[in-house]
Specification:
- The protein is an alpha/beta fold and about 240 residues long.
- Helix 1 crosses helix 8, helix 3 runs parallel beside helix 4 and helix 4 packs parallel to helix 5.
Length: about 240
Amino acid sequence: MMSNKTILITGGTAGIGRALAEHLLAAGNKVIITGRNQARVDEASKQLGCMGFVADSTDSAQLASLASSLHGDRIKLDGLVLNAGVFYPQSVLASQESDFDLTMAANTKGPLITLQQLQPLLNNPSSVVFVSSVAVTRAFAGAAVYAASKAAFEAIARVANLELASLGIRINSVRPGVTATEIQGKAGMSQEQQDAFFATLQSTPLGRVMTPQDQIGAIAFLLSDQSFAMRNAVLEVDGGYLL
């Protein structure tokens, strides 16, 4: 099991990010989390026992401040997990320009600026993992802009693997399938709607909706030295949903 590495996780206050932080800390790694809300960052970092910073992925100034703070603390990173993201379901015809702009800012520009700002702090070698989505692979009604935002950063990562290779930086992606996190509620689904949706996943080979814990093994592997030769790999962790 990977240990003694320093990993930064964006969007680490809940969901997949928080579950991953717990896993990495338990294995003996140093973890730094970010989030958009000061109170939630303080609560999560206290409970986890790790460093936490407010850094909204849509706010370039906050991302620059994060990099400056880490540099001031002489922190070097072995891994970076670009996990923070948003989902605002809208049909293609009803999609609002404001939702498009915010989704692209959080899911595409945010990871790019985060990578730019933190690159000087990444060790040689180091691993960057992008938390994408199976929406890149399969069409879901209401997810056009979300899918585009994830696919767009995967395209950036492909080029970045070439440009950053000399710095020892490798970038790979995980595409989670439907995973029960706060994102469904934030997308406007009631608890009853979520329960009904999750119940449909009983027909998948896994037989249930996935949890954040189901995603951490793939991400931890890509962060570990065992993935050293992997570049632009995509691991689809979907419980068999795409079969």
